[in-house]
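dumping the sequnces here before i forget
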Amino acid sequence: MTPPTTAAVQPVHPQDHLLRTDRIPHIWCSGCGIGIVFGALMAAVMKSGTPLDDVAVVSGIGCTGRMAGYIKLDSFHTTHGRAIPFATGLKLARPQGKVVVASGDGDLLAIGGNHFIHAARRNMDLTIICVNNFNYGMTGGQLAPSTPFGAKTTTTPLGSPDEPFNFCALAAACGATYVARWTALHVRRLTNAITEAMNKKGFSFVEVIAPCPTAFGRRNKIRRALDLLRFYYDRSVVKNQLDPGEATIDFDHSLAVGKFLDIERPTFLDHYEMVNRGEVEAWPATGVDASAAGKRKAG
Amino acid sequence: MSKAVLTGTHFMNGDEACCEGALAAGCRFFAGYPITPATEVAECMSRRLPQVGGVFIQMEDEIASMAAILGGSWGGVKSMTSTSGPGFSLMMENIGLGVCTETPCVVCNVQRAGPSTGLPTLVGQGDMMQARWGSHGVYEIIAVAPSSPQEMFDFTIKAFNLSERFRVPVMIMADEVVGHMNERVVIPSPEAIHLVERAKPSVPPEQYLPYQAGPEGVPFMANYGDGYHMHVTGLTHDERGYPVMEVWAQEQMTQRIVGKIKNNLEHILDYDLVCMDDAEVAVVAYGISARSARGAVLAAREQGIKVGLVKLNVAWPFPEDFIRDLSGRVKAMIMPEINLGQMVLELERLSQGRCPVSLVSHPGGGIITPGRILAAVRESLKEAA
Amino acid sequence: MKYWREPLDLDRIKVTRGRVTVVLDRCKGCEFCISYCSRGVLAMSKKFNRKGYHYPEAAEPAKCVNCHFCEVICPEFAIFSEDISDTAG
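..and the predicted 3d for all of it:
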């Protein structure tokens, strides 16, 4: 057998200045899509033009939750499901900051689902990157809120009886101002989406369909990372501006990807400041006519 | 007059005094969720914080509230939340994150009777052991126990100062009676209020070790945005803040976060002694029960009974050495508390049979009257004779 | 390069030249870069790195046009390309 090869001097990768290189290689498996998303995030941080001291990356628990530990910026690896409320506190304490939440689908939308919908409702100015690998990878591949109906995981050995969420539809319905979905292989468009999301004022959401060959692919007969990466890409159909409610993840017909939503809406802090300045009319805006009370019959 | 420090004499309830104490301490971020009997803290904060340039947010639950104040603190702003038993239970995991990441913040628990939903509008002191042990794993915590609206004001400032100095979540273990009673509260001038701010690093970022022990074992804390690009994690970490899944790192980290409390007890412990010089019986009490105990002690003294009061202003860490020593000097120790026996276990543990320890208990829903404590004092002296 | 029809402005197009570098010990052998290199520059090495993975090497280095796709698709930050148009002429 040939002895292992090691370069005398390790070459400097163009993204090394944003990496905690003393922690690389990272813990993600061979062929895991999280590394691609992480690379896209680092590229987007640079492209967005945000001063690096202003960027914070917050994550929860799980494989994707480890992103915060590899980026050489202010980074916070919090508790399971609580990245969004932690990020809310960071943002409100330092409104000029650009707070990015990067976590997995289980973290953000199962245990953290309540925080997700309320942060979207308030239009908290956060950038949410959700790596969707259809299962809980860190713990060995259990059912996630994204697991396709019928897919096998260690806790659904005969196939999942659950219907999965459509995260993009959920985000849009709850009040997000930017919603996009790409697969990991759409890496350039993904980078653009994260850049736009970072520069968007409001709750912006980017979902990334990413291969988990070790835990998810293996149990569902797509063992090779390369095959899984291609499987998602081949089934994707770019449908920009598609109604997020129709942006289904349907592996048989159409796995919709694209930028589904990009709208303007005042953020929580915009509204908070307006209210505190007394600029918000008392509710109800139409006023109450006391003389009309009781005139209309009920029923 | 400063808008943040309402210098003067006021008539307000304990929850409002807690809010004013927080503002006087420099708190500018509050995230909370309504719960009886702590709601007035949040209501007061929602009105007052915008007046002083702070931010109030009502979160979707107490889990989010606790997570948000940790974020607020890392954003460089003194942060707090308030709750009662059910919410306190929900906060426990993120209190542990605060302990592990050494995040200064203050959690006010206006205790009601439990378990579960219990008696929402009525007093309890049943969360005392939860305050100490409620989050999982190995740690030390600081908890203050106010017994009046004035102490709600004073001890809230104390809680912020301790949390900034030792980088640990500090609990204000109040109770429904203290929270809801209206009394005179004197707010001093801003100059007369001593404030402590977290120690920040002075080294350049490349030399900064975010979890290296600094003075008193407490690391220097960089805030988000200071340019230190630090990593903060609830995983066991080394001095760099990097996760290290090794026993030596667990040993190093836990010994330090426990040690920074245990090795600085002289700066943390706080108790008042009333009539203790010649006391043959010591009543050890905290919170609203300390006021009943004070009444009982003063009444007993009028009858010539040699009894004194040890009023715990800081309930955790417990004054172990003092109580151990005291147990050899008195004939009995008595703990009144509105639960069926929690802090009294500390007395039993520390006295080691040197003197009898008795509990005056109440399951929750009402206070312990001075008469019951006085009766227990008489009983203990009878048994000792 | 072969064209199905000759572009009208072929004489004005300057195709960039690139050089790929592999950070050997970061590679985990997923083959993404090899599969998605549009010019077929890369091939799996028969050698192993320190972690026991085969890694890519530039089998046809002259074909690299510095598109950076290997760089952005690599989950390991283990490969990148640099422009050498000037030096390669």
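Chain C has one domain: 16-88.
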